[in-house]
Write a structure and sequence with these properties.
Helices cover 22% and strands 32% of the residues. It is of the alpha/beta class and 183 residues long. The protein has a five-stranded mixed beta barrel with strand order 3-4-5-7-6. A hairpin with a 6-residue loop joins strand 4 (99-107) and strand 5. The chain is elongated and about 95 Å long.
């Protein structure tokens, strides 16, 4: 019969465990720092998640509220940016004839209750488009005034379109972080 006597050095096990935990935390920290700085390397004039075609950023239903939130939170970096997106015409009583909101319905609860969200737009021919009609616009973000500083889309092209399959949008992502003030 063989008997083995193994001496366990508690101090040595603690050192090994502590070193492993420190190495794991360091790896996680390095990964997070890499993710932050790899996103920050994007050109400051880009809107991440938007497809740029001919100098115009195409906003989709997937990134609509992220872009809307980022632009409303900090207008200045976006002034002069050209964007294109679809929505329906929504007007309030105090709008001028050349103004409307290019709106989407944002889901705010699990039972699909919605609120209207969108960009305030200005166009000379805005009165040609009826309320609740779906339009596709292309325009430039300017800094305007509607009960305070607000981004306004100065429309350069507007046309009627069909209601899209994805007409609802969802609240901005909780994980969404704008890079250099851009979406």
């Amino acid at each position: 019969m063989f008997v083995y006597n193994i001496k366990v050095n508690g101090s040595k096990i603690f050192k090994i465990f502590f070193t492993a935990v420190v190495a794991l935390v360091t790896c996680i920290l390095c990964f997070v720092i890499f993710r932050i700085f790899s996103g920050a390397d994007l050109d400051s004039s880009t809107l991440s998640g938007c497809v740029k075609q001919n100098g115009v950023y195409q906003i989709s239903p997937n990134n609509y509220t992220n872009v809307l939130k980022a632009v409303h939170d900090d207008i200045d970096p976006y002034v002069g940016t050209k964007i294109s997106f679809t929505g329906y015409v929504y007007r309030l009583l105090d709008f001028s004839d050349s103004q409307f909101v290019l709106a989407r319905d944002m889901v705010i609860s699990s039972d699909f209750q919605t609120v209207v969200v969108g960009f305030l737009c200005e166009a000379k021919n805005a009165s040609n488009f009826s309320d609740n009609s779906w339009v596709e616009i292309t325009g430039e973000i300017i800094k305007g005034d509607y009960h305070g500083d607000m981004p306004i889309i100065k429309i350069t092209d507007i046309k009627n379109c069909d209601k899209p399959n994805e007409e609802l949008v969802y609240p901005p992502d909780e994980t969404y972080i704008p890079v250099d003030g851009k979406t």
